[in-house]
Amino acid sequence: xxxxxxxxxxxxxxxxxxxxxxxxxxxxxxxxxxxxxxxxxxxxxxxxxxxxxxxxxxxxxxxxxxxxxxxxxxxxxxxxxxxxxxxxxxxxxxxxxxxxxxxxxxxxxxxxxxxxxxxxxxxxxxxxxxxxxxxxxxxxxxxxxxxxxxxxxxxxxxxxxxxxxxxxxxxxxxxxxxxxxxxxxxxxxxxxxxxxxxxxxxxxxxxxxxxxxxxxxxxxx
Length: 221
Hints:
The protein is of the alpha+beta class. The protein contains six helices and six strands.
């Protein structure tokens, strides 16, 4: 009997017909070895299933991470745009509210100043009537009483709506609330204080609507 290596060696040196005459068993072995060799050549290389599955999972994981990063970026962009839109809406509301308040305040101021002029007329009318004339003329007394009552009702309506009259006699001069019309010497009073109120001032919701026109006590030389 010949070994497989010897069969291959013999097959390379002699023809199949010669071997068939001399050694039939060797020929059959040679054919079997040749067929086995060809089958081994045609067989595909084995694939490692675990390695292939791991690579697939890693690729899917990498794709998922990339998609998650994209989604996170999109969410951040959308959130930023949403926050900016909210801020812009809030600014618009504030500006609109401020505009409405300013218009309302301006309208109230304008209307209040018109009413103040009416109140000044009532004040002048009541002050124009002298006490001695009132004592001797009943009709004049009734007219004066009617003017006074109307003036009081007007000032009550002013106060109900935040409009108040003030006469700062004796107070320290305040340029934010007083308008110095003149100075006067008065040793009995503190220099820099209001010695005379020429025209009353008015406050609207605690803010100066019209400064009081006053005479300020001059500092003694």
